[in-house]
Amino acid sequence: MANAFTSTNKHQDKTILFIISGGISAYKTLDLIRAFKKDGLHCPAILTKGAQEFITPLSVSALSGYPVYTDLFSLKDEQEMGHIRLSREADLIVVVPASANMIAKTAYGMADDLAGAVLLASNKPVIFCPAMNPQMWANEATQDNLKTLKRRGIDIINPDTGLVACGETGEGRLPSVEDLYKAINEYLDIASYKPLSGYKALVTAGPTYEKIDPVRFIANRSSGKQGYAIAEKLAQYGADVDLISGPTALDCPAHVKRHDVESAADMLAMTEQHLPCDIAVFTAAVCDWRVENSSDQKLKKRDDQSAPSLTFAENADILKTISQHKTKRPNVVVGFAAETNDVLVHAQNKLVHKGCDMLVANQVGHEKCTFGSDDNEVYFITANDYAEHWGEKSKSEIADMLVRKVIAHLENQNALQHTGANITKLEA
Ligand code: CTP
Q: How far apart, in whole angstroms, are the C-alpha atoms of residue 77 and residue 72?
């Protein structure tokens, strides 16, 4: 029977640069290196000063079959393999265990040792596997630093909960070698699957704000989470992504270019500015109307207590405009539909009326309302009344399922292209 370390040799000859920082669990990294080496991967390593208090360069070198690097200012190390080359030759950098100090230094971009310099000079994917005392892990400083790393695209394998070396119990324990091995392999699987590389994608997300006066506006309750999750997935699968976002409280996903807008008119202009593209996904909850008689001065209360009367004009439908664009229609156009009733009927009508290729529909306005939540329950709809019910899923799972549908659609188009259909992939 296969065990957790059963090798598939899928990633043979890939290079993982291990950065080992100070912590009692540093010994687990030795087994991790052993497992990846057995799979045919190259596993050079850097040991920080702290790590050398727990394991020796000799033991790491004996297992990895590589010299171990320890010193930024070592003439020998720099001659053998300069720190820039060390960071560039890896396919993946794994910091394990990542101490609170290592996390803090990386968040501040410090390069006062070899590990810091390599991380700063790196243009490769990086995973941090933190391990520390539970109080240190829970400390706001550590959590803020982790947020900074995540925002910059660094992946975190969270620690386990349990008894830690100092005798306390809580979250902070380095996961087992088996779990780390599995998680890193999964990461390598995903990282090497880039079917959208060379494709340009555009996502609209969040609400729009329609100005009443300089301090007031009309908006809606969209959080933008679904659109941001889709932008993140498109980028993860290799697309070059422009995220056109109304005001949200979200951080921009890694490797995505975000363009902030407020009104529906700004969103349309910014969207048109980013054409042509291959894939366009319209998740934004665009206000259907703008205030026609908005004021450049703050509206004041009136002596006669009468309310101001606002007049509204309909905003352009961004999805419909792009979907029916005469010269720059993207190859795949995806719409969303928020409905309170008769979800499937309204959604099918919207798909046809707006001219998109696929549409994701969800019911809003009931007790399990999806505004701001991390989960959603949706239908996936394409032409000819085709519908799939995706049930309750996280927005990240829905994003993944949708992007896979987009990939399948493009693959079909490309297959058609070989039969002479007029479909072109944009040059990146
Ligand atoms: N949409 C758009 N521009 C608008 C209005 C909507 O791009 N001015 C897009 C949304 O991003 C979504 C789809 O159209 O992809 C459907 O939005 P929805 O709010 O469900 O429907 P509406 O077209 O606004 O119609 P209604 O409010 O009547 O249901």
A: 8
